[in-house]
Amino acid sequence: MSRIAYVNGRYVPHNEAAVSIEDRGYQFGDGIYEVIHIHEGRFVDTDLHLSRLARSLREVSIAPPMNDAALLVVLREVVRRNRVNEGIVYMQITRGVARRDHAFPKGIAPALVVTARHGTAFPRDIKAWAGTAITVPDIRWGRCDIKTVNLLPNCLAKQKAREAGTYEAILIDGSGGVTEGSSTTVWAVDANGVLRTRHLDDHILPGCTRAALSALLADNAIAFEERGLTEAEFRAAREVFLTSATSYVKPIVRVDGVAVGDGAPGPITTRLFGLFARHADGAAHNHAPRLASAAGIG
To answer: What's one GO BP annotation on this UniProt entry (predicted)?
Structure first.
C-alpha cells in the first residue's frame, strides 16, 4: 500500500507529494515540527505535544495553519489512511512560500505537511531495550528549546553515535555540563542516589516524554531534581536513561565504552520503565480516541 501524506490541504501518495523550492523551510530551515507516538492505535501525550507545537510557533512568529481540533482531524486521517497502529505521526509547519529574502515575508500562508509511519511495538523487555551512548561537544545554536527543523548539529552528533555503534550522542556544553542527547532528554541517578535531569532553559528542548514522566514521578512520590550534571558527575552516575517520544524510557548501560553502574538497567530506571509502559498503555490523559478502532485497523 502506498504511503499517504497530507500536504497543504491535500492527501497525496508519498511519491506525488511535493513542496515549492521556495518554501522557507527548504531555503532557511524556517519552520518547526512535532512528533507524536502512536501506541496500540492511540496518540500518546497529545496535549503535551500540541502545547509544545503552539509554543514553538509563537517563538518563531509563525501563525498556526489551523486550530487544534482541525489539526487532530488531519493527524487522525493520515494515520487512518496509512493504517498505523504502532508508530509515529509527524507534522511540519513552515512559514510558507515566498521569494527568497531573509526577512519574514508578509501575507503568505504557513505550509503544513503531515506523515505517519509504522514502528516497532512498545518495548517490554528492559534489558533488550537498553542501549549505549557516546559523548560529543554541544555545537548547537542558542535556542534549542524551540523544536525547529534546524537539526544539522543534531544530525552530526547522531551520525557520530551511529559510527561508534551506539544509540545516542550525549551533548556536553562549553562549560562542561550535560545538556541533552541529540534527540533525547538525559536523566541520571547520581553517585548519591539522586535522580536528576537538567533544568529547562533556552539550551534544551522541553521534552514531552520528560513532562509526562515528571508527572508520573510526582504521582508516585518519587523524588527527583531538575538540576544539571557536570560531565564528571554524569560519568560517576549509578544509572543513566533517556526519554523521548520514540525512546520512551531507555536505559543507557555504557557511555564512551565504560559501564554505567554495573552495566545493566538499574532499579530506578527499571521502575520508571514500568510506570511509563503503563502510561503508554492508556493513562487517563492519553485521551485521544483509539485510532485503530476509528480506522477499522485490525
So the answer is: amino acid biosynthetic process
